[in-house]
């Protein structure tokens, strides 16, 4: 296999990716268990497609073992979690089963992890379409992209409480997009209409524009299917100049979006003006999804004054109504609103003089009421 060396060495990017997935799993499971109790449910699914052998060549655990370690050591997850690990590589699965067998804590789980040797393809998507899933976190992590499709994502996300994290191998997709011998797998990924549109639009574009177009339009397709809660995260290669791949997160609920946004923000390698980078290269207005994630903090104040002109809302309401589709996090909103208050551009209740001071600055709690001036005619 071309991908035999994929798990031989743990890279910095793979470590960050595994950390993002395992941290989100923990937060997602906590929320879903609470909701399941209210509705009389008792099961959660974790599904990892293209799961691999469970460890890299340096013996570092990859996502299957990280997720199981968390579940096996949590009294609630021991009873509720059903984990599925799926791959078409029998050797990988044999290794993974052996690694799971070594985990002493796994014996406490009510449902033994299920390791399945099968292909991830359109037949699987069709099968999933006919099934009703309990709350499910699906992580799709192909070495290339064969088997990954918008249809597969939709087949699981149709159910309540289901979120998806997927590996998007831009480099390989870019190489194959215009290859007449690889029309079918590219069409399966995007759908025939979108794939044909990509081939037409990227012809003649320089590499940066080509990347932004493909990644942005894939994200917009997910937005079209599932609303506004889509987060892209970009990984650069070792010299920091070229993109190696992206992670996309898709949820149907703001809570999931907010949790993952915080995790990705902390995983970002740098920040500008306190705004986490999400590892994006600069984007232009033509790529609206990526452009909005590239806005600097200086833009946030004017954006809020324009968006909420004439309205009075709490700080928390401002954050929830505005942050989706941007890379701004909660602390950015608090800092900017505090600055706007000092500049006399908004009014806050209680005002800064009556709020707690930390390190010489007035705090800006979630409940502070913010009044924006009406838009100037």
What is the typical, i.e. mean, pLDDT? 83
Helix and strand sequence: HEHHEHEHEHEHHHHEEHEEHHEHHEEEE
Strand order of the largest sheet: 3-2-1-4-5-7-6
Counted by DSSP, the helix tally is: 15
The appropriate CATH architecture of the largest domain is 3-Layer(aba) Sandwich
Task: Report on the biggest sheet.
Answer: 7 strands, mixed
* CATH class assignment of the largest domain: Alpha Beta
Parts with pLDDT < 50 across at least 5 consecutive residues: 1-9, 280-285
Tally of extended strands? 14
Q: How many individual domains?
A: 2
Gyration radius, in Å: 22 Å
How does this model look, in words?
With 377 residues, the chain is of the alpha/beta class. It is built from 15 helices and 14 strands. The chain has two domains: 2-292, Rossmann fold, CATH 3.40.50; 297-371, Arc Repressor Mutant, subunit A (Orthogonal Bundle), CATH 1.10.10. It has helices spanning 12-39, 63-72, 75-80, 90-101, 122-129, 150-157, 170-177, 183-190, 192-202, 207-226, 254-267, 288-292, 300-307, 315-322, 330-342; strands spanning 44-49, 81-87, 114-117, 136-140, 163-168, 230-236, 243-250, 271-272, 275-276, 312-314, 347-349, 357-358, 361-362, 369-371. Strands 3-2-1-4-5-7-6 form a seven-stranded mixed sheet, sandwiched between helices. It has a three-stranded antiparallel sheet with strand order 10-14-11. Strands 8-9 form a two-stranded antiparallel ribbon. Strand 2, helix 4 and strand 3 form a beta-alpha-beta unit. Helix 1 packs antiparallel against helix 11.
